Amino acid sequence: MIDAHCHLNFPQFQKDLDEVIKRALDAGVEKIMNVGTSIEESRKVVELAKKYENLYAIVGVHPHDADRLEKNWILELEKIAKNEKVLGIGEVGLDYFQHEMGKVVDRKIQKDVFVKQIELSLKLKLPLQIHSRKANGDIIDILKSYKIEFLNPPGMFHCFAGNIDYLKNALGLGFYVGFDGNITYEGLAPGENTALSDLLEYAPIDRIVTETDAPFLTPEPKRGSRNEPSYVIIVGNSIAKIKHTSLEKVDDVTTKNIKKIFDI
Ligand SMILES: [Zn+2]
Ligand SMILES: [Zn+2]
User: How far is the CA of 222 from the centre of ligand 2 (A)?
Assistant: First the structure.
């Protein structure tokens, strides 16, 4: 299997990254995509990807970091993205959910930073890895305006959440959709009205991507501890259960999906 989205550059992995990666490989995770959230973290994910053969980098500025950018950030990002272990531009998008005690980055700034990164991804012919929270209408509107220029496939939405209509729009634009350990959680997440299992049931398996978002979103029954890429197998098992199929099938199809998106 492949973990298409995690953050092994975060401090939670500082002490035991070697073991974390080894555990993933031993569990049958063939590739791990480590994702940047700022210019500085994007530099870090590239450095880490150079160090570990099975680790790849996705680089970009997360909407939470969109108001902390220096003047030439997009040129910096372009330089970083030219490394051969970089597979995509992400995680980029919009996030209107309150975080850090009520803080939401100005929507206009978020949109501007998102659009600049879509344009960079088109210029470099790299797929997008989209982050969206409570901003689904605006995300679709912006992506639609670039539709004719998109790669085929254009990329994936990471940690998909929303309603069936939004899912239809994302699939209609050619995107794949990623699911994480939160599909094992009971009930709805704050602010959501459609269960992740319903979205997963609707999404065709040949458009689904597996991910962990480690160190966050630890799947049951490990919830409460740090998440790590080896747990993508638990995510795969949960997808298999919801889709009434086998783990082997989920492994086979999602691995092919991810390789197709990122051209590996
Ligand atoms: Zn995200
Ligand atoms: Zn993430």
Answer: 19
